[in-house]
Amino acid sequence: MTPLAAADKPAEIFGWPSSPARLFGIAAAFFVVLETILLMAGVLKSRLPVMQGGQIKQVQITALWLFVAAPFALFALIYAVMELKVERVFQQSPTRIHFVCTLFAVLETVRVYLGWAATTASPTPAVLSMQDFSGVGAFLILALGAFIWNLVASKAKPLVSR
């Protein structure tokens, strides 16, 4: 095994898809399928607080799972259009960095929300501000930068594979 082949071995074992549309699509599908399974099992029948019009309202937790899947579905759609219509091929490193930054942004959003939701049981719940979402903003900027890097680094599909 050559040193270059040995370097690619961990990625092969981990199973990263080479297509960013497929990678982001798998993540979106994972969250939607997991939501469906948990809903059918009766785990997601509880309600969570959400601020609407200055009032705290209770919504089903399933709506929040769909919001978690949404960024991945959006990027999967954008990448699918770029791969199929514009016929671009994307590099693995920017794709992986973009995926991880998007995942961290979503997880940070969930962390901030759950921290706020825990305070809604008190008579004076915490107030969310833009400062609470600074980590989310940082990860979104990194994800956007990786997305732009991926678009710039992409190449036209070779004529042989068209």
Overview of the structural elements:
- The chain is mainly alpha-helical and 162 residues long.
- The chain has one domain.
- 64% of the residues lie in helices and 10% in strands.
- It contains five helices and four strands; from the N terminus they run H-H-E-E-H-E-H-H-E.
- The strands form two sheets. Strands 1-2 form a two-stranded antiparallel ribbon. Strands 3-4 form a two-stranded antiparallel ribbon.
- A hairpin with a 2-residue loop joins strand 1 and strand 2.
- The protein is elongated, with a radius of gyration of 19 Å.
- The mean pLDDT is 84.
Topology:
Elements: H1 3-14, H2 20-40, E1 47-52, E2 55-60, H3 61-84, E3 88-89, H4 92-117, H5 134-153, E4 155-156
Antiparallel strand pairs: 1-2, 3-4
Helix pairs in contact: 2-3, 4-5
